[in-house]
Amino acid sequence: MSDVVLLGQPTVGEEEIEAIREVFASGWLAGAGPACKRFEEKFAAVAGVPHVVATSNCGSALHLAMLTLGAGPGDEVIVGDYTFPATGHSVMYNGSKPVFADVRPDSWTIDPASVEALITPRTKGIIAVDVAGQPADYAELRKIADKHGLFLVEDAACAAGATYQGRPAGSLADVAVFSFHGRKGITAGEGGAFVTANAEIAAHARKLHTYGIAPAVDRAASTTLPIPEFDELGYNYRLSDIQAAIMSVQVDRLPALLAARTHAANRYQELLGDFDLLELPVALADRTHPWQAYIVTLNHGIDRGEVAMRLRERGVQCNFGTYASHVQPLYGQTSPCPVSADVFARHLAIPMHANLTDAEVETVAAAVREVVTAVAKG
Ligand SMILES: *Cc1c(COP(=O)(O)O)cnc(C)c1O
């Protein structure tokens, strides 16, 4: 046990090692093989959709979403502003322009009202982000998308196991994408998934994720010698079978991991709910929050850099929340997103992972209380 309370930590162990051993013994280590097939079937139940394509990461799954939904040069895609910039980047990979929409002040997910205001004749679709895993407002977003003939994508990078009005994250838009990066709720170090209820879109994504031909595993059973033909530019966006085997174990762990994170979030609420120098994150009533991160909002005027430095000195890791995209120079956006800019300046992520002990949560809460009080006094 280290004295430092970690901001995040994966939960992996003997079961994952055993799964890797089995992949080594099978001889199929490459991507899109039998272990990927098994993982895709398992993850379909988590995401609540029939079609899953395991991918190298969430950014590649987002790129596949833009390709299969037909966003190209000259098109605009409206994106929730408060997110890791993979979301905005993915729109640019195929020559479209991301237009960032401001977010709700409570959940930091895309504000449906700000989406409507940004729609132009060039708008092709919307990417909503489930911030820290909490789903966005898909009922309202669906209405807007249908009214204007737009596609709707769910960036569910952090949202495995979350729900919205009783439906699982992954089933809330035309396409959803997940990340299995080491900082997410379930992980293989790196990894991702492209999921959809649409068989045609799924088949297209599968083809594009393996250089534009059918995966080798689909040819391996043939008794003849099928020779694929390349008729479309694809990529190598495969998840390796080693990673897929890890992910199958992680899916088995998911209920326990979610329960542990929820327990920690509830303890933070009990310990810090009455502390008036910051606001705690809000879990909206009609959705379940998977707590990929636990982000508090410091009151205006409190020096966040000073708070972070003093918490780290006390062995409590912390960080800013995620990014306001519209201020990133890459995107060249001139229109403001005031809510996103404000939380980008005031957010502080404190330790949240499934291995946190009650004692650690208590240590963090006490440190936050003391440090923020001292910094606020100046
Ligand atoms: C982590 C994250 C991504 C990127 O995921 P990778 O697997 O690293 O490509 C995209 N969107 C959001 C909202 C994320 O949090």
The CATH C-level name of the largest domain is Alpha Beta
Q: What's the β-strand tally? A: 13
Q: What is the SS-derived class?
A: alpha/beta
Helix content: 25-40%
Helix and strand sequence: HHEHEHEHEHEEEEEHHHEEEHHEH
Q: What is the makeup of the main sheet? A: 7 strands, mixed
CATH superfamily of the largest domain: Type I PLP-dependent aspartate aminotransferase-like (Major domain)
- Overall radius of gyration: 21 Å
Total number of distinct structural domains: 2
Strand order, main sheet: write it out: 1-9-8-5-4-2-3
Number of helices: 12
| Contiguous uncertain segments of 5+ residues | none
The amount of beta strand, in percent, is: 5-15%
- Distance between the ends: 34 Å
What's the mean pLDDT score? 97
CATH architect. name of the largest domain: 3-Layer(aba) Sandwich
Shape label: globular
CATH fold assignment of the largest domain: Aspartate Aminotransferase, domain 2
- Are any ligands bound, and if so which? pyridoxal-5'-phosphate
